[in-house]
Structure formats: C-alpha cells, structure tokens
C-alpha cells in the first residue's frame, strides 16, 4: 500500500475550507471540542473495513472515498461516494460495526473524531446536536435519493440524475456546478447505479452527442443543464 507523509496530529477546523459542511463548524459555540486527529489515506487504501469495530467518525478533509459492500464489481456494490466535508462512519453507530468499507479514490485526508468524545460534546451542546442531526438527515436524504435513482428504468435517467447530484454537491462546496472533475471511475459509477461500465460509457457518449455534456475522460462539463434534467426526469431520452 502507498503511504503518505504524516499530517499534523490535531486539525485546525477554523482553517479548513470545508468547515461549513462538517461537524466541528460550531466549535466556537462550545467550550471543549472533540480532540480529533488528522490521517492521510493513500489512493486505493481502506480507511475502515466492513464489519470492523466502530470507534470514530471521519470527516473528509480532502480527496474522495467510495463506500462498498462486498468486493466490487463482481461480488459487491459501491454504495456511495464521500467528498470533502462529508462524514464517514455514521452507519456504524447503531450496531457498533461498520456496514461497509471505505476506500480512498485519490490521496485523501480525514479528521478522525473518536465517537465517545463526540457523544460527550453532543450532550453538552444543543447547537452541536442540531448540526449532528442535520448531517444524519443529509445522509438519509441521500439514501432515499439513491433508492429513487435505482428505481429509474432508463440508464440515461440514472446517469443524468447522478451527474446533477454531483453538480449540486460541487456547488455546496463553492465549486463549479458545470465543470465536474470526477474522482470515481466509470466502473465505480456503474456499480453504484446498477449498470455495466459499457452502459455508462455509451450513455455518456449519447449525452455528449445530444449536446448535454462535454466529456473528456473524467472531466465532464454540463453544457445544457435543463436538457440534462429533462433526461433525469424521464422527459427526454438519452
């Protein structure tokens, strides 16, 4: 496995560009905060494994991760993608075991937040409780969106909706909502959406031919967002 240089042991949340999306955003509202630590995770390495004992939440500081059950693509499925500002590990709180594995899609950094300390801070701060509940609600909304997405029969609708979702997440992070630089492969996208890699490539080619996208490897520019939304909503074919 690749190794990255050691990071400072304690993150400075107020210097982090993703603090508005993350849990420690309210650190000024409480007297004590979680004594987190920063970790570097090289591309291809696992942050945690499926069925591993749960001890910490992880806030993505930079890079990106995919979460998987089983071993994609033949014996598993990609269940989601975590971008800077997202929290990983929320699904393990109930059972005390991680329900999936998290793999770095590129060299990444996370803030590790021991959950026993998170619980103490939540008990002391109603403001932080509300923020934490917002983050959990965001994950539930994403799960529901994925179920609706997988309910789409047309592959074109699934991929168009997926790209629009990435566009919204980019805008939340102050990035361009039309110039997407995908950290995930077409194979990962297909596994996530229940499609073959060939289907993903064919649909992207058709969307490009229809004038919705410009595609160059993992660089995808949304040229006509209303038209792409029409495909996602089943109002137009791809």
Summarize the structure.
With 238 residues, the chain is of the alpha+beta class.
Strand content: 15-25%
CATH topology of the largest domain: Jelly Rolls
CATH superfamily of the largest domain: Jelly Rolls
Number of H/I helices? 6
Main sheet characteristics: 4 strands, antiparallel
Instruction: Kindly provide the name of the CATH class of the largest domain.
Output: Mainly Beta
Radius of gyration: 18 Å
Structural class: alpha+beta
The backbone outline, from C-alpha atoms, is elongated
Strand tally: 11
- Which spans of ≥5 residues are poorly predicted at pLDDT below 50? 1-8, 25-32
N-end to C-end Cα span = 40 Å
Walkthrough of the structure:
The chain is α+β, with helices and mostly antiparallel strands and 238 residues long. It folds into two domains: 13-148, Jelly Rolls; 153-232, Orthogonal Bundle (Arc Repressor Mutant, subunit A). Helix content is 34%, strand content 23%. It is built from six helices and eleven strands. It has helices at residues 115-124, 126-150, 155-172, 186-193, 197-209, 225-232; strands at residues 37-41, 46-48, 56-62, 65-71, 75-82, 87-88, 101-104, 108-114, 179-181, 213-216, 219-222. The chain has a four-stranded antiparallel beta sheet. Helix 1 (115-124) packs across helix 2. The protein is elongated and about 55 Å long. The protein starts with 36 loop residues before the first strand and ends in a 6-residue tail after the last helix. 35% of the residues are buried. Mean pLDDT is 83; it is low at 1-8 and 25-32.
